[in-house]
Amino acid sequence: MPRQGPLLERLTHRLAETPPDFLDEPAIGGQGAAVVAAVVHDLLRLHGHAASREALKRFEARDATTDRNRLALALIACWLLADDWFVSASIDGGALLQFLGEESAILAAMTPAPRFVHDPDRREELARTCLARLDFVPEGETGAQANDRLSSISGAERQRLLAASREMEARAHAVREALVKKAAEESADKWSRE
Predict the structure, then answer these.
(1) Residue 94, CA atoms < 13 Å, CB-side half-sphere
(2) Cα angle vertex 11, ends 116, 65, to 5°?
(3) Pick from 57, 128, 50, 55: which is nearest to 92 by CA?
(4) Are 124 and 16 in contact (CB under 8 A)?
(5) What is the Cα–Cα distance from 74 to 59, expressed in whole angstroms?
(6) Which of 100, 117, 153, 187 has its CA 20 to 30 A from that of 22?
(7) Do the bridges between strand 3-4 and strand 136-137 make them parallel or antiparallel, or are there none, so unpaired?
(8) What confidence score (pLDDT) does residue 156 get?
(9) Residue 10 banded pLDDT, cuts 50, 70, 90
(10) How far from 106 is each of 8, 111, 112, 129, 156, CA to CA, in Å?
(11) Contact, 76 vs 126, CB < 8 A?
């Protein structure tokens, strides 16, 4: 069951006030200023955790085309997770790394990172996604309310729901085909006995 988190407005306000250092271009191939792996390392230390060099490698860029937006969003997410509320919440280091690495990449694949600072709906999406993936709900909301709102605002969540729906439909189709085949076999057996 999700735990009670902070007020959503606190997080969206924090995102709106993201400092320029967290909006710097990620360091990729000698370009850019922000070393994302170092920022992630510092965030984990702030939360009382350590990360192995291997775990931090996913925050090092190799290709500007594929890595820039993902790393830029990881920087913004680091700023969000450095909020005093998150620091005092005793969040598992693995969960932090997963959110920064995997969930940020999913969001970044659909939306340019600066929009998560400048667009109110994208700020809400990032804040809600962060809370949901770390097993929290915004203060004053139930789990169902938080899930409904996240589903309605999040492009990534809509993609997940569509994928799950397609998977369920494919399974239902396979079951229907198996039932038709079995009925045909039983019918053929009946005819051969008569």
Answers:
(1) 0
(2) 25
(3) 50
(4) no
(5) 8
(6) 153
(7) parallel
(8) 62
(9) very high
(10) 21, 9, 11, 11, 7
(11) yes
Amino acid (one-letter) located at 72: A
Give the separation between CA 58 and CA 67, rounded to whole angstroms. Answer: 10
Taking residue 38's Cβ as centre, other Cβ atoms within 10 Å add up to 13
Sign of the C-alpha dihedral, residues 181, 185, 191, 194? negative
Report which DSSP code applies to 99. I
Which pTM does this prediction carry?
Answer: 0.78
Residue 97: CB partners within 8 Å, gap ≥ 6? 40, 44, 51, 55
Residues in the chain: 194
Q: Which of 73-77, 141-145, 178-182 has the highest mean pLDDT?
A: 73-77
Alpha helices in the chain (DSSP H): 8-16, 36-46, 53-56, 64-81, 84-88, 93-98, 104-108, 115-118, 120-133, 143-153, 155-193
Coil, strand or helix at 158: helix
Q: What is the 3-state secondary structure (H, E, C) of 21-46?
A: HHHCCECECCECCECHHHHHHHHHHH
CB contact at 8 A, 73 and 24 = no
Determine the residue type at 58: R
- Report the SS3 class of residue 3: strand
Is the separation of the CB atoms in 33 and 25 below 8 Å? yes
* Alpha-carbon span 121 to 178, nearest angstrom: 45
